[in-house]
Amino acid sequence: MVISAGPWSSEKSEMNTLEINEKLRPQRGENKRQFTNTKEKYLVTQVAYFLSKGQNTYSKFHRLTITKVMNDVLSSL
After folding, report:
1. Contact between 44 and 74 (Cβ < 8 Å)
2. Angle subtended by helix axes 7-53 and 60-76, to nearest 10
3. The domain containing residue 62 runs over which residues?
4. Which of its termini does the chain have fewer beta carbons within 10 Å around, N or C?
C-alpha cells in the first residue's frame, strides 16, 4: 500500500534542505581551505623527504643550501 505524502511534505523537506545548505555553506568553505592547506603541507613534506634522502649524493655546499631552503619553506607554513 502506497501512502501519498501531501504537497506540504515535499515543500517542507525542500525548505529544510535549503536551510541546511545555507547553514553549512560557510563551514564548507573553511573545510576546503583546511584541506588545501593540509594538501600543500603534505606535498612540501614529501619534497623535503626526497630531498633529504638524496642529500648524501650532493656536495657539502649543496646539502647546506637544500637544508636552508627546506627550513625556510617549512617555517613559512
Report:
1. yes
2. 160
3. 10-76
4. N
**Is residue 3 included in any domain, yes or no?**
no
Name 40's Cβ contacts closer than 8 Å, sequence gap at least 6.
77
Based on the structure, what is the number of domains in the chain?
1
pLDDT at residue number 1: 44
pTM score, two decimals?
0.47
Residue count (the chain): 77
For 6, the grid coordinates are: 501531501
Nearest Cα residue to 45 out of 37, 62, 27: 37
Distance CA 55, CA 6 (A): 71
Query: Residue 1 falls within a domain, yes or no?
Result: no
Cell triple for 73: 619553506
41: Cα within 13 Å, side-chain hemisphere: 9
